[in-house]
Specification:
366 residues, Rossmann fold, 2 domains, six-stranded parallel β-sheet, 12 helices, 31% helix, globular
Length: 366
């Protein structure tokens, strides 16, 4: 945006000039002129968790838009194509490989995550919105109905890198209701905990008679997991496909994590398998208020979406870093502030005692 415009008018209000294509209403009018309003291309931005939380918005479009727009079609550009096999998308393009800029005039474009500098980015800040609601507002300029806010994923696991013995052990843990997953996320400074703390959590779980299953990947480009000691665990790090991980998260009895991506995966349901959707999710919220990262999940017994169903923040909410942020900061300023607050020792004050985490996980086992 160019804000260096002469002050004009009686009220001396500065005038703002901007590119027309960052204005949502202008984009819609252009699509109407081109006849592409019902031919939508959704560019999915953000990480894995952002895409997972976009699933209700995509499903919402097919449920409601097609009723009055029989020619409606929706295509995606995504970094995770296998997430979307269960929906009747026109095309699914791999955002890591395909360059689709040449197709831009052929579609009405939308996105789940507003780019910096857009009006949407100025209007709201992602860390201060619920993850599912934020994608719906960005894509369709509306909230979703409560009944449509749960996440559906249909994994097709292969477990090619897992031995037969390990696979049998996992099946046994699932059947006995004793599968406990631990994802020791290492991403932003504001949500990366010390390796020593994670080792204490794992040992406390073992002391409780739990055999933890470690999931995640080695750190790459600032994203991954801490190098937790795998002794006494089933160590699946770097050996699971995305489908494998979703399958386990949906069928685990309990998960503990500090990263939103596995939290969102565990909150999902496979609509083809009634045994899914029951995972207890324990987490330690640090930079985002728990209300902004948890979900409406379908209660298998009542068949109704319930807020925070089986999701529990074990961290100290009174010390959450979100208390330090000025709600009137611009979105980029908030993003910088979040990490600067997390860099200090105070982050460790939010964490629950390792023994408390282990006792909570043990309380959910059969």
């Amino acid at each position: 945006m160019n804000r260096e415009i002469p002050i004009i008018g009686q009220n001396k209000i500065p005038q703002v000039q901007m590119r027309a294509d960052i204005v949502p209403s202008w984009r819609a009018l252009e699509s109407i002129k081109r006849g592409t309003l019902n031919k939508v291309m959704a560019l999915l931005r953000g990480g894995l968790g952002d895409e997972v939380c976009t699933e209700p918005s995509i499903r919402f479009a097919f449920k409601y838009f097609t009723k009055n727009r029989p020619d409606f079609e929706l295509s995606l550009i995504t970094k995770y194509p296998t997430l979307w096999r269960h929906l009747p998308l026109k095309q699914v393009y791999d955002g890591k490989r395909d360059d689709l800029r040449i197709f831009k005039p052929a579609y009405h474009w939308t996105t789940n995550y507003p780019p910096a500098g857009s009006l949407e980015w100025e209007f709201y800040c992602v860390p201060f919105c619920n993850t599912v609601d934020q994608t719906a507002i960005s894509m369709w300029k509306c909230m979703l109905h409560v009944e449509d806010k749960d996440i559906h994923l249909t994994p097709e696991p292969s477990f090619e890198k897992i031995s037969k013995e390990e696979s049998a052990e996992l099946d046994d843990l699932i059947s006995k209701g004793r599968l406990v997953l631990i994802h020791a996320g290492a991403t932003w400074l504001s949500r990366t905990f010390k390796t020593s703390w994670w080792n204490e959590v794992v040992q406390a779980c073992i002391d409780q008679g739990i055999k933890p299953v470690l999931i995640g990947a080695s750190p790459r480009d600032g994203v991954g997991t801490e190098e937790v000691n795998p002794r006494g665990c089933i160590d699946l790090r770097d050996r699971c496909t995305l489908d494998d991980t979703i399958f386990l998260c949906q069928r685990a009895t309990a998960l503990f994590t500090n990263d939103s991506a596995p939290l969102h995966l565990a909150a999902s349901t496979d609509p083809n398998d009634d045994s899914t959707g029951k995972t207890w999710i324990g987490y330690a919220a640090t930079i985002r208020h728990p209300s902004f990262i948890t979900h409406f999940r379908r209660n298998p017994e009542t068949k109704v979406n319930e807020w925070n169903y089986r999701e529990v923040n074990l961290g100290d909410e009174s010390r959450g870093l979100w208390h330090d942020l000025d709600y009137y900061l611009t979105a980029p300023d908030k993003a910088v502030a979040l990490d600067s607050f997390g860099a200090g020792a105070r982050l460790q004050e939010i964490l629950p005692a390792p023994k408390r985490v282990a006792e909570w996980l043990a309380s959910k086992l059969s």
